[in-house]
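User: Can you predict the 3D structure of PilN domain-containing protein? Sequence below.
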Amino acid sequence: MARINLRPWREELRAEMQKQFVVMILGAAIIAAGLAFLWVSDVDSRIAYQQSRNAYIETAMKQLDKQIKEIEELKRKRDELLARMKVIQDLQGKRPVIVRVFDEMVRTLPDGLFYTELKKAGDTVSIVGMAESNSRISSLMRQFDQSGWFANPNLSNVLAADNKRAGYSQFNLSVQQKTPEPEGEEK
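Assistant: Sure. Here are the predicted structure tokens for PilN domain-containing protein:
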């Protein structure tokens, strides 16, 4: 006897295949979602790690900026102190020089001549004085030329005698101050 199968096996096979397809799609979707979740959480953790590193670098930069400001302030104070020390050393070094300059001015002063005003600007000494004659002024200029402390005397003008000081002429003279080489001087 011949067997005839009247059951709808094709529809069952199709339904079974459809179930398997849906299960595979759902499985693939679940696996894709899991992988996406892992990828997103990895990216988020990397971003959080980088942000923590950036925050650490920012705090370190702020500390370094404070230290740089402190260093700059210390350098400025150091420069001010060095400038003050230099001024003090210059004044200490020049203290005996001014005494020697005044002493030399008195030594070069001939009779019949006196100073009424002295001004010093840099290395130039401006002198206003009174003289009995022009020969006394030229004698003063020669004395300055021969001095070890002065050089380049320059007579700017000579005014005739006025009523206050009869017989005296007023003169304006400028001379360069120089520091002579020490010649076995005491220190």
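The first helix runs from residue 9 to 108. Helices lie at 9-108, 134-146.
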